[in-house]
Write the structure tokens for this entry.
Amino acid sequence: MEYEAIIGLETHVQLKTKSKIWCGCANEFGAPPNTNVCPVCLGMPGVLPVANEEALRLTILTGLLLNSTIPRYAKFDRKNYFYPDMPKNYQVTQFDKPSTVGGFVEFEFNGGTSRINLTRAHLEEDVGKNFHFDRNSGVDFNRAGVPLLEIISEPEITSSDMAYEYLNALKDILIYGGVSDCDMEKGMVRCDVNVSIRPKGQKELGKKIEIKNMNSFSGVRNALNYEIPRQIEVLTKGGQHHQETRRWDDVGGITETMRSKEMAHDYRYFPEPDLMPFEPTDAWLAEIKTRVVELPLAKKQRFIKDYQLPPADAQAFVWDVPLGSYFESVAKKSKNPKAVANWVINNLRAKLAENGGSLADLKFKPEHLVELIELVDGKKISSAAAQQVFAEMFTSGEAPALIVEKKGLAQVSDTGAIEKFCDEVIAANPKPSADFKAGNAGALNFLKGQVMKLSKGKANPGVVGEILEKKLKS
């Protein structure tokens, strides 16, 4: 029997706020343990939470970026459980009335575009972090109360590679939108994986098995590459699956049983009595809509269509947002956007990296790059000369035409002058000349190179080739 995997992902993303979700403690990584805490973070009796409005804004912004529906009524709930990293013994989250519903993520996969639908994205508080030492354990509550968005996909992912690409696309969207820095090394993104298998063609889902607290996307892919065959082997040998929670052992490369899976009723959800329901107004939503940005995939597709860029160049500008914005500011003024992309990616980016500078430090104007490309396209200077002009332009900020004039880099297209160079080269190289006449077309390139050398790179290569060929065939 042939089986297929059905995967759903729960992605937890820390929001990019200055303070925590219910108090004024700093939302920052790397502070000494238990220094960014207060009675609210620590769950002291009698304290009251106050919602961070920016966290609410970022939640709605995420919903808009993910094509979700924004309900006009949402509320917070208490999810009750006992664990050392949760000082209140309950987590404030959203249960039956979340802030966003539905939506989808589109991404490139297997040479096309795939779409994974979302169930919801709801706002909650993060918990502390447990540390285990040789003979004891400790808890750092600096992370407790950091605003956390849980984004839940529908069970529509069918492979480990698809899960990996979905997670990367989701991360790119959140970074683009300014919702989160998504720094996985700082624990800003964590993922729970729900996976089951079923016979191909069957509509009913198999028993769901959850793999908890994955802290890297490659870890998700590796865990699925182990877990899917494991589940298939159990069924093939006549066994059965039971709903459970497992952990991924990255060193051992295996998943291991942690506990039986909890159900919603195990958490005894009830409405958070200390927080008012969230009812966004038209004006409030309109303000957030102004923060919506073009998504990475849409930008890549637009760059390919509008500027005729190769996919690799378009992707480079998607990954480097400032560089992409600079490219577009120049390309809109140029008749040759593909050449603009080449200069920005291959020359400008390398120069900035070499000098440790940024786009804000550029001495030349965008119009100067347009002018440089026009000089090359108009055959006023050679490609080699253009490299010299760009280097000088980068250093001094002077206009390309001035640099060309000052350094005498103008390309020679005068046929009379080029004919003299060609005559000298033919006379000095009788064997390559004879080889070309005998049918060796490659010999012409050698002769062209000699003419360019003799002219110090100023001769127009196209004219050189035409004159050489004409003289050698006559």
